[in-house]
Amino acid sequence: MMPALQDRLRLAASHVDALVHPDAAHETAARASHGAFIRGHLACGALALALLPLMLAFNGITTLAVALILGWLTAHLPLAMYVSRTGELARGQIASALLFAVSFGVLAALTGGLSSPVLPLLVLAPVEAAIAGRRRGIVLVVAVTLAMAVGPALAGLTMPAAADPIGGFLPVPLLAVTLAVLYAGLLALRVGAATRRRETDLVRRETRTNLAARLAGEAVLRHGPNGRVEEAGEAAARILGLGHPAAAARELAGDGLFARVHVGDRPAYLKALSDAAADGAVQCLRLRLRRGGTQPGEAGRPGYVTAELTVHPAPDGEDGVFSVLRDVTAETTLATERDTALAEAEKAREAHSRFLATVSHELRTPLNAILGFSELLSGDTPSGAATDPQRVRDYAGTIHQSGSHLLQLVNDMLNMARIETGHFDIVAERFDLRTCLESCRRMMEPEAARLGLRLTADLPLSLGEVSADPRACRQIALNLLSNALKFTPEGGRVVLFARSEPQGFVFGVRDSGIGIAPADHQRVTEPFVQVSAGLARLHDGAGLGLAVVKGLAALSGGRMTLDSREGEGTCVSVALPSLAADAGISAPRPTLSQRLAAPRGEAGRSTGHDIKRSA
């Protein structure tokens, strides 16, 4: 029997839920509130329809009090239909409270006025109005209730005697009180259900908020009027590496969060809290927060995370502010890598442009000379150059010089490309450093004499043999001497020097040339760069001399040092370690991430500057 009754009740409840207005049906809490109101008022209407035949059977022609009770119960039906059709639950609740106040106020006047046992039941009307949550509605219901409670007595409209019992045995006040108590029970059920729904909804919302905050990596904190942390979200434990959320709440409470802010970011942190509380505007800043349990001054370096703190003013009527903490360490790292990649891309573009401009200039001049003088020597022109032996020798010398220049340019570019791509192998062997450097000096001596320069050597007899790659050392010395001769004016001096050191040896070239401004020291070691560039180039060359020297020094495990000031000459020295004889060092192929992570401007640890594939 009971299962069948339960099934019928569920069926009836489903029919009632179908009466809920569509605007409220999509939300669980609103659907439950509307359904409870409609069910309760339909039940009151059904009770009126059930009592009407019984009262007519037992009491005959009904009295005014009985008619008032039946009318009050029956009026619940149109109220239920009004809420069902319009979805205006608050107005329906206010109307129901007014109906109760008027009906029971009149009933109290009919059953003794101020001495009627029905009069205290009028307090239920403001209670039902309070459920609606409308301030004006509550004031209206309270005013009507007071008017119905004392108005009839003041106007002399109350009946001094109780109404006739229904059927001769059921006093009207008893029936009214019974119905009022039942009505109060319905109100209590509605209030309790609404309270439980609100609590459940709050728990669900808090759970969803915490879940969303965890998924988004955000922690919500509440700060008191003085900026001290009063509550900390669960995500704070994960962001700051504090373990359990309860431990994080204790650790960050009070001045705990402030103590974790990096000293350099504390003024901005305090200003953001102060401005949000004073101006009511949202403040956003990035700061560094100490992570984990390491304290400043303890053994080990404390780790910091980069966090974004968004400070919101508190809602109206609350003190303090709220803040949202989000770990942006990964974003900051990505942004840094992106900026580095963009800088490298811009650097590649500039290098490509420099390469095209330099190579086109350096190739065009000697090629024009080769083509022009070879045409003269071919005898196709009426100049008669082919019949003059002296002119033939001069033209041949110019062609040879232009060809040598082109060969040197191609060799420099090939060397630079081999260094950058990691195909230049360093093979160490024992050789006499002084003999190697002296041969380089003698090789460049005719060029120095032609330019009117004094080329000397400062090579101690004690240099002896060293263990290194003689090809790399010879190439370094020739490049440095060529650069020095090119940028030293006539009458100047160029010195090739070397010395031994405990871990290796140092050699280089110093001159009394035009010098290099300190701001250009880093730039001149990049491929295809000259201090005088573009249309204002004063010297020939592709700008690869120092770039090749720096790359070879790095491949040999050494470093290049540049000391120069504009107008005071230049000194370039290369420090190389002593390698085991027959030991080979292959230049590793650097990956993109290694190139982006490599410190810029450190000649000793770099594998050379980026020369683009077009080289």
From TrEMBL:
PANTHER family: SENSOR HISTIDINE KINASE RCSC, TWO-COMPONENT HISTIDINE KINASE. It catalyses: ATP + protein L-histidine = ADP + protein N-phospho-L-histidine. SUPFAM superfamilies: ATPase domain of HSP90 chaperone/DNA topoisomerase II/histidine kinase, Homodimeric domain of signal transducing histidine kinase, PYP-like sensor domain (PAS domain). Residues 358-580 form the Histidine kinase domain. It is an enzyme of class 2 (transferase). InterPro entries: HATPase_C_sf, HATPase_dom, His_kinase_dom, HisK_dim/P_dom, HisK_dim/P_sf, PAS, PAS-like_dom_sf, Sensor_HK_Regulatory. Its EC number is 2.7.13.3. This is histidine kinase. Keywords: Kinase, Membrane, Phosphoprotein, Transferase, Transmembrane, Transmembrane helix, Two-component regulatory system. Gene3D superfamilies: 1.10.287.130, Histidine kinase-like ATPase, C-terminal domain, PAS domain. GO terms for molecular function: phosphorelay sensor kinase activity. SMART domains: HATPase_c, HisKA.
